[in-house]
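TASK: fixed-backbone design
INPUT:
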């Protein structure tokens, strides 16, 4: 048979120069970040506390799906010939010392002090994965441009719309008797999320990115329309989830962001963003579970805030108890995720103390927590400098600020999915800023 008569299904030889092109690292990264929440909703439709325990429950609780995606991206970057650790060689002396102190200490109590060392070490390894993922994102994001920002906004909007559709289908498929139940644990019944708060974390970060994108005045009409729809739905999901810290963090995070980018904001874009947020808040009232953890009424303080009946939802007691525990082991801490077995102020266990500073000090000890805090401040400063020079990166900065402020009030930097998101946002901003440093 001659080559001209080869059947269509036969394998043709690969010609030089006719290679299949793998997706760019940046494109793959944006797809992963946008699609993972919806993928989690498909994979975990059953509440975590009804999964019967075992490895599947453990994987769900610790966001192994997101960690697996991070590992896959790191491996992809290595196969593309990119050095994940290369950014570390460019650290300044003070930054290098702080990183060395952190790496030398943050795992010690998990091995020698923790009441559950195996569990603590798993959580320690997850932090290592998050860190390596951030370094990989830094390398990939060096190719990020204004056009990439438009694609990122469109991708996030599509991810939010898909997540909302899956959530709506999941709820609509429940029996009518269940939908009318007022004594159901609705806060753990959303597909893909351990709690309604985690949905709020994701929605608030998406709001930050999409509101920032619209406020700069989207240059292309299709992306602007998709971003508007995504922002409306993200606002609806945030208000539906009753996550007050998300609303507070979005508003507070906008202050430094607007200050840095005030000359580049477009009045029409700001009005469009505000309109989408308000419409989303109204849409969130169409259906709300009969549960005190949900709804805009909880955010506005109309409904009871918590079983403890306080606007702080018991956080002040939790923080004081955590501070006392830190005093018991100030140098090395009690082990990663020690809050799970040490914090039980209201008759039930807490995964974390609803404050990243206390969470770090409790788990790692004060020296490691201070070193991590110093590095976090340095990263935020570098991100702010990047936005000052390239205002088109403002959506990333607003999303990052929203997450960081929420982390002072909730477990944003305890959940692997939002640690991943914060690491990616910070790394992208630092990579954008690094281009100017290299040029100088």
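OUTPUT:
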């Amino acid at each position: 048979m001659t080559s001209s008569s080869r059947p269509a299904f036969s394998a043709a030889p690969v010609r030089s120069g006719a290679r299949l092109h793998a997706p760019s690292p940046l494109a793959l990264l944006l797809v992963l970040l946008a699609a993972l929440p919806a993928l989690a909703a498909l994979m975990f439709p059953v509440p975590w506390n009804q999964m019967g325990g075992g490895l599947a429950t453990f994987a769900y609780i610790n966001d192994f799906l997101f960690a697996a995606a991070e590992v896959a991206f790191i491996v992809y970057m290595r196969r593309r010939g990119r050095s994940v650790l290369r950014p570390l060689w460019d650290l300044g002396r003070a930054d290098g010392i702080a990183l060395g102190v952190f790496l030398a200490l943050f795992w010690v109590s998990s091995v020698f002090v923790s009441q559950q060392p195996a569990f603590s070490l798993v959580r320690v390894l997850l932090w290592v994965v998050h860190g390596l993922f951030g370094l990989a994102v830094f390398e990939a994001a060096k190719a990020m441009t204004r056009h990439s920002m438009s694609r990122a906004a469109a991708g996030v909007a599509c991810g939010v719309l898909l997540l909302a559709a899956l959530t709506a289908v999941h709820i609509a498929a429940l029996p009518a008797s269940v939908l009318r139940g007022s004594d159901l644990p609705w806060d753990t019944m959303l597909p893909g999320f351990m709690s309604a708060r985690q949905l709020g974390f994701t929605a608030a970060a998406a709001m930050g990115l999409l509101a920032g994108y619209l406020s700069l005045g989207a240059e292309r009409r299709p992306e602007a329309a998709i971003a508007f729809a995504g922002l409306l739905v993200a606002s609806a999901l945030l208000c539906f989830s009753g996550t007050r810290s998300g609303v507070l963090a979005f508003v507070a995070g906008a202050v430094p962001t607007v200050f840095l980018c005030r000359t580049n904001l477009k009045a029409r874009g700001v009005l469009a963003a505000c309109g989408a947020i308000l419409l989303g808040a109204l849409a969130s009232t169409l259906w709300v579970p009969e549960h005190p953890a949900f709804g805009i009424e909880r955010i506005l303080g109309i409904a009871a805030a918590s079983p403890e009946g306080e606007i702080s939802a018991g956080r002040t007691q939790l923080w004081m108890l955590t501070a006392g525990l830190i005093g018991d082991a100030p140098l090395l801490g009690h082990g990663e995720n020690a809050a799970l077995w040490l914090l039980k102020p209201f008759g039930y266990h807490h995964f974390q103390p609803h404050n990243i500073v206390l969470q770090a000090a409790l788990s790692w000890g004060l020296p490691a927590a201070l070193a991590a805090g110093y590095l976090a401040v340095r990263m935020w400063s570098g991100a702010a400098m990047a936005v000052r020079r390239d205002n088109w990166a403002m959506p990333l900065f607003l999303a990052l600020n929203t997450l960081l402020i929420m982390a002072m009030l909730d477990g944003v930097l305890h959940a692997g999915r939002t640690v991943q998101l914060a690491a990616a946002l910070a790394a992208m901003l630092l990579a954008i800023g690094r281009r100017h440093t290299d040029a100088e």
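COMMENT: Residues 24-439 form one domain.
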